[in-house]
Design goal:
The complex is a heterodimer of chains A (396) and B (460).
Chain A: E1 2-7, E2 11-17, E3 20-26, H1 32-50, H2 52-61, H3 68-71, H4 75-87, H5 89-93, E4 96-97, H6 103-115, E5 121-128, E6 131-138, H7 149-162, E7 168-173, E8 184-190, E9 198-204, H8 210-227, H9 229-234, E10 249-256, E11 268-269, H10 281-298, E12 305-311, E13 316-321, E14 325-331, H11 337-358, E15 365-366
Parallel strand pairs in A: 4-11, 6-15
Antiparallel strand pairs in A: 1-2, 2-3, 5-6, 5-9, 7-8, 8-9, 10-14, 12-13, 13-14
Helix pairs in contact in A: 1-4, 1-7, 4-7
Chain B: E1 8-10, E2 13-20, E3 35-39, H1 45-63, E4 71-76, E5 79-87, E6 90-97, E7 100-102, E8 107-108, H2 113-130, H3 139-156, H4 164-168, H5 178-194, E9 198-205, E10 208-212, H6 216-233, E11 258-260, E12 278-283, E13 286-297, E14 300-307, H7 314-346, E15 355-360, E16 365-368, E17 371-374, E18 379-381, H8 385-400, E19 405-411, E20 416-422, E21 425-431, H9 438-452
Antiparallel strand pairs in B: 1-7, 2-3, 2-6, 4-5, 5-6, 7-8, 9-10, 9-14, 11-13, 12-13, 13-14, 15-16, 15-21, 17-18, 19-20, 20-21
Helix pairs in contact in B: 2-6, 5-7
Organism (chain B): Cyprinus carpio carpio
Domain CCZ1/INTU second Longin (chain B): 198-324
Protein name (chain B): CCZ1 homolog, vacuolar protein trafficking and biogenesis associated
């Protein structure tokens, strides 16, 4: 099957997933693999709305089914995804960006979330300004499956695209990398109308659990109010490169390979707020280009590299992969190698010092008492769209 | 290796190559007329037509996005197709099998995109020299010519040994002192004056260029032809021993060692043919058709180009032979002597200290201390092929922007590769210093530049 077509100005990439064929025509200079990964994200976003099992089943029954009938109204979601993939490095790094928060505050917030649970509740997320603040999960969930950054990105995108403000939403959502054949039911509400920056997402496996989950939200709101927790989030210090006092460094992306205390990892990365020169959307997109190019070279399947140092007209760029971390940095164009190295060392030291604040270091767990009399059904085989899955074990 | 873990390595190889012109068979049922050349010939006719049709369709498809820049290449999992519009409506397509590393469980495919893509360009530039009868002559003539030419050319194409030097398509210049250079210049002038028919001349020694009167792009193509096709075909009989069976042709000519490489092999032979290959060079806006006469004495070779309208006969060849032969022989030994003197002064050539490749886009000069021997079929490099591919990657990155840049890379094997681009010059250095850090590598490269390239400014 044709995989890609190259011409001077455009790259055409093909991806086939089951009965669906995706084509991307791009004028950027991304590599074939990177473009294909973007198509995969689009596919997963569609799966997150329909589930893979139902897509396959529909096309098995009717080969020329027009999927647009089912995707009606989701254009904003897919458009939003395509836009955000061009300016957000989290897709390239396959990692989640967290809100920097002192670990004591974060622990307190997580504790509140841990307490407000109900049977069949699987995940609770607290999101602020598109950054993850805290995530707590049901104990047994982690046995086999793992929460992947790609799923989180799709979740964020879905919420962003729904563009609701006040009130609450109860919607089915499938997390494709977690389990691509069945739905969760997501309760989404902003905790601080009208600013709407702090968002609470509760995922349950029970379709009918709306009231129970809404009750959890109320409990959380109460606890927040009594401790004035929203203030912590509002006071959070997003940091700038200036805070680290490295004169030539303009921007960086840092992704540690191991952050969480225990075995299960949630890949995360951190990056400073954009400096003056890079605040506009165009500049952000433009900066992502060289980052992506270096990422592509350094992770090449046939000739991977450890370090790239590239001095060019507009900036000097560095990419570095070690067993402990992966990082990309952008300096002023006239920086000398000596200063670049010394600033980098300073940066690494700063990150080490602030590690607790920059990353989520552990994922708290809770347990909801298992319901008696529920049998564990086979994962996926009996999954039908819009059917609630009985029992958590069927997720695994 | 552990048992059961057998890695098979496939190198890239040419699967097929064809040329077509969609204008020649626009109607249904006439598709076969579009195909001007197809290799391998054994492919069934319908499959040929299908392949050509597919290429046309792809080109049309990409034209919807960019009418002036249609598809250049197409990748599938097993092979790659490259498209090149040599002239308006004349399309060349090359299909190459992907290099593969087959492991028992995983079928990896390390792509070597840059190389293959550039190689097709090189082969097409090359083609320009010989088959420009597109405008003149009918289709019949064209197909015949293409068949003859490409059959031979495709055999010289060795994809697995292509690397960065092929991407550059540069010319290796022979370093000379001023006196000897002047001697060569005056020789060329003398010959051009005595043989007024000669339009252009080029002088080579030891497969390297010294002087050329041709335009750069044409010389580049001619140089490639000489070094990959013509020279390897003619061994060196005069360097063989006196009693060697290779000598007979030259026997009887004790005045000089000169002989024709194109044209009559032996002047004394009454049946000698006086046919010379024709080439087309680009002067201003049109093409000039010329006879290519290559005359060689020892390791010096001169190319004379004469207007194709002139009929070259025995008289002319004998004149050339008697005029050029002795002088060229003398020159060749002079150059050799000079070269040896210089070598003695600069010291014996040990393992070069720095492994680098240098290329100057302006005069097409190339220099490599990595290639120990580079002919058409073999490229002996002293570095791992993966490192050469990294060089190709860097070259690709450089090509994106027109600014001066520098890229330093540390490979998984702890080799450092440094690429510098300044003005129109590119320099690639490979360092094997496992424990060096960025600063030390930088210092090393600075040292190299100071010794070998001290009059060229490279970014720090």
């Amino acid at each position: 099957m044709i995989q890609s077509i190259f011409s001077d100005e455009h790259t055409v990439v093909f991806l086939q997933k089951g009965p669906l064929v995706f084509v991307s025509v791009s004028a950027t200079r991304q590599s074939e693999q990177q473009l294909r990964r973007e198509l995969l994200h689009v596919y997963h976003q569609i799966v997150s709305m329909l589930t893979q099992a139902s897509i396959n089943r529909i096309f098995e029954r009717r080969k020329n089914f027009d999927l647009r009938r089912l995707l009606f109204g989701s254009e904003k979601v897919l458009d939003g995804l395509l836009d955000v993939m061009d300016s957000d490095p989290s897709f390239m790094l396959s990692a989640v960006q967290c809100l920097p928060l002192p670990s004591s505050s974060r622990d307190a917030l997580s504790h509140i979330l841990q307490k407000a649970i109900t049977p069949d509740l699987v995940f609770s997320f607290l999101i602020a300004n598109n950054r993850l603040v805290s995530v707590v999960q049901e104990k047994t969930v982690l046995e086999d499956a793992r929460l992947k950054p790609s799923d989180l990105h799709l979740l964020f995108n879905l919420i962003r695209a729904s563009a609701f403000q006040a009130g609450e939403i109860w919607m089915p959502i499938c997390l494709p990398l977690f389990n691509h054949d069945c739905y969760f039911y997501a309760y989404v509400a902003y905790l601080d109308p009208p600013e709407c920056t702090v968002c609470l997402v509760l995922l349950s496996t029970d379709k009918e659990a709306f009231y129970a989950v809404a009750e959890c939200k109320r409990k959380i709101e109460e606890a927040f109010a009594s401790q004035n927790a929203l203030q912590w989030v509002a006071n959070t210090q997003l940091y700038y490169v200036d805070d680290i006092s490295v004169a030539n460094l303009r921007h960086f992306l840092y992704k540690p390979s191991k952050v969480l205390d225990h075995h299960r990892q949630l890949p995360q990365f951190t990056c400073p707020e954009m400096e003056v020169g890079y605040r506009s959307q165009e500049e952000r997109i433009r900066l992502l280009d060289p980052y992506r190019n270096m990422h592509n070279r350094i992770h090449s399947t046939s000739r991977p590299l450890k370090l790239i140092y590239h001095s060019a007209g507009k900036e000097t760029l560095l990419a570095w992969v070690t067993s402990k971390f992966e990082m990309f940095a952008c300096f002023t164009p006239l920086v000398t190698k000596k200063s670049a190295i010394s600033e980098l060392t300073k940066l690494l030291r700063w990150i080490k010092k602030e590690e607790d604040r920059l990353f989520i270091c552990h994922l708290p767990k809770y347990s909801t008492a298992p319901q008696p009399g529920r049998s564990s059904t086979d994962r996926g085989s009996s999954a039908r769209p819009n059917t609630s899955d009985t029992g958590l074990l069927s997720l695994l | 290796m552990a048992s059961g873990m057998q890695e098979k390595q496939y190198t890239p190889s040419l699967l097929s190559f064809f040329i077509y012109n969609p204008k020649f068979g626009p109607r249904e049922g006439e598709e076969e007329k579009k195909i001007l050349f197809y290799h391998p010939i054994e492919i069934e006719k319908n499959e040929k037509i299908r392949n050509v049709g597919l290429c046309e369709a792809i080109v049309q498809f990409t034209r919807t996005f960019s009418p002036t820049n249609p598809a250049k290449s197409l990748h599938t999992q097993k092979n790659r197709q490259f498209f090149h519009e040599a002239e308006e409506n004349y399309w060349m397509v090359m299909v190459v099998r992907n290099p593969m590393v087959e492991k028992p469980n995983k079928d990896g495919k390390p792509p070597t995109v840059e190389y293959q893509e550039e190689e097709i360009i090189v082969s097409n530039l090359f083609n320009g020299t010989f088959s420009r009868a597109f405008e003149a002559g009918g289709v019949e003539l064209l197909t015949q010519k293409l068949e003859k030419f490409f059959y031979r050319y495709l055999q010289t194409l060795h994809l697995q040994s292509c690397d960065l030097l092929d991407v550059f398509g540069g010319i290796s210049f022979f370093p000379l002192d001023k006196m000897t250079y002047l001697k060569i210049q005056s020789f060329v002038n003398r010959v051009e004056e005595s043989l007024s028919l000669v339009k252009y001349t080029a002088f080579l020694y030891n497969d390297q260029l010294i002087w050329s009167g041709l335009e750069q792009d044409d010389m580049r193509i001619l140089y490639k032809y000489l070094t990959t096709s013509l020279f390897p075909r003619h061994s060196e009989p005069e360097l063989a021993g006196r009693d060697s069976p290779l000598r007979p042709e030259v026997a009887g000519n004790l005045l000089h060692y000169g002989r024709f490489l194109t044209g009559p092999a032996n002047l004394k032979d009454p049946d000698a043919k006086f046919r010379f290959p024709r080439i087309f060079v680009n002067t201003e806006d049109s093409y000039e058709e010329l006879h290519l006469i290559v005359y060689k004495a020892m390791t010096a070779a001169v190319c004379f180009m004469v207007n194709a309208a002139v009929d070259l006969n025995r008289e002319f060849c004998e004149q050339l032979d008697s005029l050029v032969g002795p002088q060229l022989t003398l020159l060749a030994s002079d150059i050799c002597e000079q070269f040896n003197i210089n070598r003695r002064i600069s010291g014996p050539e040990k393992e070069p200290q720095f492994k680098f490749i240098y290329f100057n886009h302006m005069n097409l000069a190339e220099k490599s201390t990595i290639h120990m021997r580079k002919t058409a079929s073999v490229s002996l490099t002293s570095v791992h092929p993966d490192l050469m591919k990294i060089l190709g990657d860097i070259n690709c990155d450089f090509a994106r922007v027109n600014e001066d840049e520098e890229i330093i890379v540390k490979a998984m094997t702890d080799y450092w590769v440094v690429g510098k681009k300044s003005d129109q010059r590119e320099l690639y250095v490979i360092l094997n210093q496992k424990n060096a850090n960025l600063i030390e590598v930088n210092e090393e490269v600075k040292r190299l530049c100071a010794t070998q390239f001290n009059n060229i400014f490279f970014l720090d």
